Amino acid sequence: MSLRVMRALPVAIAGLVLAEPAFAHEQVGVGGGLVSGLLHPLTGLDHLIAMVAVGIWGAQLGAPAIWVLPITFPLVMAVGGVLGVLRIPLPMPEIVIALSALVLGAAVAMRLRLPFAAAAVVVAVFAVFHGHAHGAELPNSANPLAYGVGFVVATGLLHLCGIIIGTLTRWPAGERLIQGLGAVIALLGGYFLAQSLGAVA
Hints:
By secondary structure, the protein is mainly α. It contains eight helices and no strands.
C-alpha cells in the first residue's frame, strides 16, 4: 500500500464514520408507506398526547372503556384517514385536534366519569379529525393502505402506553400523578388551541 493511500485512509474512514445518513423526504412503496404511517403519529405532539390521554382515560373509567375506547379511536380514525386521502374537507381540523388534547387531558385531570356511550362518542368524534389529518398528509409516493395500517398500529401502541400509565390509578400517589399528567396534557392542548386560533385569525 502506497504512502499516499495510507495517509488518505484515515481521512476516508473518518468521513464515513462522521457522515450523517441521507433520508429521502418521502418513503416510497408499501414498506415506505408502512414506515411513514408508523412514524407520523409520533411526529406531532398534539396527536401524541391526545392518543396517550385516550388510553389513560379508558383506564380511569375501567372496564369496558379501558379496552373499547382505545379500540374505537383507531377504527374511527381509519375512516377519517380515508376522508383525508380523498381530500374531503372537515371544518377546522387543526382546531379540533388541539381541542381534543385539551378536553381529553381535562377529562383525565378531573377523573371525568361520563357514561360509557358518551365517552365513546367523544373519542370517536376526535378520532375522525386525527385520522383526517394523517390521511391528508399521506406522502405522494407512499402506499395509502400500508400508510393507514402504520398510523393505526402506532396509534394503538400509544393508547397502550396510556393504559399502562393509567394502571397507576391503583395507588393513591399514582392517581395524583396521573391527574397531574392530565393537567399537563390539557395545558398543552390549550397552548396548541391558542396557536391554531391565532393562525386562523
